[in-house]
């Protein structure tokens, strides 16, 4: 096969930080290349250089053997490169066909007016040719996330790109939509397109890729054909050691028939006055991991914010061990026995500019062991920090430095160590492994299971369906702020949970 994209010693620096270091790739015409690596490995920066969003510090980009200076996305589209971003760039109030043809509208003959009839006809033909399920005249605001992604792909195809880059394309899709996307990408490959996919989901890599490039700390550490590798080998290249990719959760523990946490008819409005949680009710038992699943953006984030005191409920009740704790502050909830792993570690869990020691006591700084007569016991605080470092294998260059210098995984371990040290009865774990390396994910999963096996309760929110299904004892699924069903992870198929995630309600056969 001919080379279609080559990079030669491509480097990108942001100040002293080297995001990509002498990257040399050779991507063949008509192949599907997966670019994998941990968060911060340099995947997105590399693709942004290929698409003209970021200028290289040094090195060359060759398209079909010719060097090209990628000054902006129009340059990239001009040489046949299109990109579908993780966060879609569509106009919600416009229709499918209007978004696809935005900026390249079809005009009536000898007229400045747009020929809407011809535009709809052309887009309908594209949809049919690519075996997609879309209505050209539907508004973007009325279609699903998966359908919006198809619109983004068609936008690029209409502009005659033959190289398509997709950044974490399955992050916000239901299982059915993931399968549909994989089928679409394989069809595009059959049509001669070259596909580059940035992802961290190794199962999808093995299903989709022809070849795989592994990045670590901005360097290429592996370039392999799919048939010559497996998930464990890819993970080993990403992390630098063997990693257990399956959660060791035997579910032999006893879940007591004691309701310790209850949400009744909860309704929540966002800042615009729109209802984002609609009459949600559920009960959580002592000694279980209770999962909350769904495509991101369907109310899970707002729900956990209300449950952790970061957002107010309009109506309804939250009951903890028989006590009404609705709209309590986070500090009050902690005193009631709730530990909090927040969705965004640096927004509400840590202070990036403060020391590791200070972050180890954040939220618990009025503890009598730490604060006495208005003075902090710095020796005791450092002892707490060192204990967390040892017990949770927190790796850091300077233990007296600021927490912003730590990797995502090690920063997350500080939060988990701090929250578990408070001996909570219930742990609210929201996206506990987001932006965390595979090795740290394994550690965090084990800590959550250990906490549960000690008779405690976990409420787990995650956009990673595999994480929810492998850790949870029971799961509710949310869609547009409502619960569409409750399931037992060991008794339900991926198809069934995918339907619930798409808003198709099921019977609550496993409700307790």
Automatic annotation (TrEMBL):
GO MF annotation list: ATP binding; ATP hydrolysis activity
Domain of life: Bacteria
InterPro entries reported for this sequence: AAA+_ATPase, ABC_carbohydrate_import_ATPase, ABC_transporter-like_ATP-bd, ABC_transporter-like_CS, P-loop_NTPase
Keyword Nucleotide-binding: yes
Originating organism: Lachnoanaerobaculum orale
PROSITE patterns according to UniProt: ABC_TRANSPORTER_1, ABC_TRANSPORTER_2
UniProt key word Chaperone: no
Name of the protein this chain belongs to: ABC transporter ATP-binding protein
Residue span, ABC transporter domain: 5-242, 261-505
Annotated keywords: ATP-binding, Nucleotide-binding
PANTHER family per UniProt: CARBOHYDRATE TRANSPORT ATP-BINDING PROTEIN MG119-RELATED, GUANOSINE IMPORT ATP-BINDING PROTEIN NUPO
């Amino acid at each position: 096969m001919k080379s279609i994209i080559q990079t030669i010693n491509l480097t990108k620096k942001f100040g002293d930080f080297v995001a990509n270091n002498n990257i040399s790739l050779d991507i063949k015409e008509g192949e599907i290349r997966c670019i994998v690596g941990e968060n911060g490995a340099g995947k997105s920066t590399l693709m942004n250089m290929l698409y003209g969003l970021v200028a290289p510090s040094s090195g060359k980009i060759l398209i079909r053997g010719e060097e090209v200076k990628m000054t902006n996305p129009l340059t990239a589209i001009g040489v046949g490169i299109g990109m579908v971003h993780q966060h879609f760039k569509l106009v919600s109030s416009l229709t499918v066909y209007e978004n696809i043809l935005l900026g390249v509208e079809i005009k009536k003959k000898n007229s400045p007016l747009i020929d809407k009839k011809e535009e709809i006809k052309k887009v309908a033909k594209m949809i049919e040719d690519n075996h997609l399920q879309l209505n050209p005249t539907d508004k973007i605001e009325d279609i699903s996330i998966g359908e919006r992604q198809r619109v983004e792909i068609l936008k690029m195809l209409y502009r005659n790109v033959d190289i398509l880059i997709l950044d974490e394309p399955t992050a916000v899709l239901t299982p059915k939509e993931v399968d549909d996307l994989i089928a679409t990408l394989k069809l595009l490959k059959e049509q001669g397109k070259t596909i580059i996919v940035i992802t961290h989901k190794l199962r999808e890599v093995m299903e989709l890729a022809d070849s795989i490039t592994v990045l670590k700390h901005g360097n290429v550490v592996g370039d392999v054909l799919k048939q010559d590798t497996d998930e464990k080998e890819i993970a080993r290249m990403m992390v630098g050691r063997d990693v257990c990719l399956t959660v060791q959760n035997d579910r032999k523990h006893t879940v007591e028939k004691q309701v310790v946490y209850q949400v009744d008819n909860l309704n929540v409005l966002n800042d615009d006055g729109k209802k984002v949680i609609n009459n949600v009710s559920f009960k959580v038992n002592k000694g279980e991991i209770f999962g909350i699943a769904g495509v991101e953006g369907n109310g899970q984030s707002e729900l956990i914010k209300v449950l952790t005191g970061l957002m107010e409920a309009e109506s309804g009740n939250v009951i903890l061990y028989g006590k009404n704790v609705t709209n309590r502050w986070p500090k009050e909830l902690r005193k009631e026995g709730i530990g909090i792993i927040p969705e965004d570690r640096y927004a509400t869990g840590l202070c990036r500019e403060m020391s590791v020691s200070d972050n180890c006591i954040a939220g618990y700084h009025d503890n009598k062991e730490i604060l006495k007569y208005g003075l902090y016991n710095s020796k005791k605080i450092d002892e707490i920090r060192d204990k967390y470092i040892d017990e949770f294998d927190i790796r850091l260059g300077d233990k007296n430095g600021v927490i912003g210098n730590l990797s995502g995984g090690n920063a997350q371990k500080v939060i988990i160590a701090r929250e578990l040290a408070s001996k909570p009865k219930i742990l609210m774990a929201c996206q506990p492994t987001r932006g965390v390396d595979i090795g740290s994910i394994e550690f965090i999963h084990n800590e959550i299971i250990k906490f549960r096996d000690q008779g405690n309760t976990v409420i787990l929110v995650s956009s990673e369906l595999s994480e929810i299904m492998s850790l949870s004892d029971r799961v509710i699924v949310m869609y547009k702020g409502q619960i569409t069903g409750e399931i037992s992870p060991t008794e339900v198929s991926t198809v069934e949970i995918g339907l619930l995630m798409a808003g198709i309600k099921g019977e609550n056969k496993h409700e307790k």
